[in-house]
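Notebook entry, cofactor series.
This is the third protein in the set we're modelling with a bound small molecule. For this one the ligand is zinc ion. I'm keeping the input format identical across the series so the outputs can be compared line by line later. Sequence and SMILES below, as received.
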Amino acid sequence: MNPNTPRAPDPCLTRRGLLGSALGLSVMSLLGSPVLLAQAAASVAFTKDQRDQMTPDEVLEMLRAGNERFRAGKMHPHNYLAQKQQTASGQYPAAAILSCIDSRAPAEILLDTRIGDTFNARIAGNVVNDDVLGSLEFACAAAGARVILVMGHTACGAVKGAIDNVELGHLTGLLEKIKPAVAATTYSGERSGKNAEFVDAVARTHVQQTVEAIRKHSAVLAPLAEQGKIKIVGSMYHLRGGRVEFLA
Ligand SMILES: [Zn+2]
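Returned structure with ligand:
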């Protein structure tokens, strides 16, 4: 199947999205914005054209709106089997997300995205190394994603470990990548892994440093960002409350 061929309407969309509207199909013709279209077609994966028409800001708005739905308990009624079927022949994700392996921070759920919407790299402490960088370069330069979202989170165990100089096998080297953020975080109180406020301050610094590291170390991504073709954005997920805070 040609990946550009429009996909057949999902039965879930037809049942819930359109028959539920008094305007029915005419509504679809009025939805000029890809974001609105994507939101209306909650269970339908992006076509290449839809994804390519989205600006990085529209992709960020899609993610922000998804997190609002998550926090409100009003997530889209996902038909994962339909999403699986629709994406089997091709994928056109709009974003690549670098986040922590923490079991409480699954990006796809927190942002209410569908199968096919986002590339996801998960590694303890959302650190970036050459392999992660290569993955992000693939996501944007080869596969067309418009946003890289680095997502740290509160009460991050990896950040605590970096602060407290934990040593454990290969984890020791990973935590070294977070330690520059410990040193760079200005904080007058107790600088230990037991101080939740300090841990979260370091996590925030680390996200900002990771965004800068991606720009600095990728000769592939930096020009895409400079040209406005992609945006590289930091964020913090708050375990309490469920908010994904997008950092400036
Ligand atoms: Zn973590």
